[in-house]
Amino acid sequence: MGLMYSMTDIAHHPNVLAAILGIVTCVSPVASVQWTDYIFTSGAFYASLLSSIILYRLSPFHPLAKVPGPVMHKVSKLWSVWICWQGRQHIEFKAMHDKYGPVVRTGPNEISVIDPSAVSDVLGAGGLPKGKWYLARQDERAPSNLLTLTGGKHANRRRVWNRGFNPDAVEEYDEILAKSATQLVDGIEARSEEQGEVDLTTWFNYFSYDFMAEFVFGGGSDMLEQGKDKKGILELLEHHMITGALVAHIPWFFYLGNRIPGATRSTLKMRAHAMEWVQDRLAKGAKVKDLWYHLTDEAALEKEEQPQMKEVVADALMAIVAGADTTSVALTNFFYLILKNPEHYQRLREEVDTVYADADATDVSRQSGLKYLSACLDESLRLLPPGLTGGPRQVPQGGRMIAGYFLPEGTQVYLPPYVMHRNPECFYPRTNDFVPSRWLSPEDSDSDSENPLSGRRHNRKAFLSFSFGPANCVGKKLARREMLMVISLMIQRFDFNFAKGFDSERWPETMKDFFATSRGPLKVVARTRV
Ligand code: HEM
């Protein structure tokens, strides 16, 4: 499928068709007829069109009629837009699954599934491709990036990407990672001395964008050094993230929206920043083999054709967003959960002090000893995955059987990580609590009451924080290395507490699900350990 929606696609969509026909009805210049007649005729037209759409969507003739779900969601996607606008999609999906069970109709032509046996059928090799939800997020002036490609084209591009994340390549990034991580703790220390408290949400944003810019383009962002986001990139990205999340629910609006002056302002500004980074990278080169090196195939390993510059720019820009937001959110969530559960913080601190007794925590060769920290990280990614609901896959031609239902072509299928991870069929007991030991083997776990063997359920296939299958997170290993380094360095350097007046009970309510997650300030006091 091409990047743009063709006029035929648009005309097949009832909402757009209604709008176009409505406009035509209103502006037809038949002089002898009164305007009131026009208003009456178009009103009657709209009312009958709308009621027939609603009746069909609620009727037993609709192909998804057997899938249970709330009436508002069955009737229109506009309801999802409203929920998304409020950033409450993950909460709404959880409530729907609690009420209707493991398979829910969440839109007229959309379902959500939290049955782990559907994971391979949806995300595995030969599963469902990405569809219009992803296309709507794609800047139509730029070529497709890895996130929106499907099938053979995706596999070809992914081969090039994979080279940037093989063990040798990842080792090469350790030096720049250590530099950014050290700048982060130095920055937190200085800010704490000045102001007594520090907002981890902001500082993790600075860190992750600086590191990603360095990793992708060999530099270009200096928020840590400046202690602020001088160019306003974070605000730009937040705007981009929210508009992207909204239009993805109503792809027909994407065609119109792209033509409204100003609607794509944040995308254009973001592209302009990326072009500055590209110019710099081309002019100065890089000290290490960065992602740009691999994506442009500077080593000339591609036998058939070299990657096109326009495609590399699109991928590089996507990499910054995909890698920075997610890691920053994961780090913030981790520190929230560990400070909320001080008994685990204590054990974590002892482990970090033992593993790094005589070394700086930037030494990644010791990360294999961080078993408890790793378990805490997995548990925080389970309870609060950075992609709370994620994007849906689309049923291809011919339809598919998924989770016991036959789904016709075009059906959107969600596997929402936030809800899947809180399904007691997948993780039990204490499904909604922070219990890191559920990730440890019985030998490493010393707390049987927390983690009883009988009746325990721990379905790793249901753990979707990094997705699953051929389009899973390509940066997963780098992200883990990065997070383990930052967390151990911070624990080694500081003692943390929530800041005075910080409402730790209500902080999760500040989380907004816009595909990526936005969240409120996480205010802490960081005392340097002696
Ligand atoms: C805690 C950190 C991270 C989390 C939780 C995470 C999560 C995810 C998830 C859930 C997906 C699938 C998205 C979808 O199907 O819609 C994904 C894809 C992707 N991630 Fe990550 N990610 C993280 C860090 C990174 C980093 C550091 C990079 C580095 C560039 C990265 C690059 C990508 C790319 C390029 C894709 C698209 C892969 C494809 O379509 O083949 N991610 N990530």
Automatic annotation (TrEMBL):
Name what cofactor the protein needs.
heme
User: Any idea which GO molecular function terms this record carries?
Assistant: heme binding; iron ion binding; monooxygenase activity; oxidoreductase activity, acting on paired donors, with incorporation or reduction of molecular oxygen
One of the Pfam families matching this protein, by short name: p450
Q: Which Gene3D superfamilies match?
A: Cytochrome P450 (1.10.630.10)
Tell me the residue numbers annotated for binding heme: 473
Keywords recorded for this protein, A-Z: Heme, Iron, Metal-binding, Monooxygenase, Oxidoreductase
* Listed pathway(s): Secondary metabolite biosynthesis
List the InterPro entries: Cyt_P450, Cyt_P450_E_grp-I, Cyt_P450_sf, Cytochrome_P450_monoxygenase
The entry sums up its family as follows: Belongs to the cytochrome P450 family.
Official protein name in the record: Cytochrome P450
The organism encoding this protein is Lentinula aciculospora
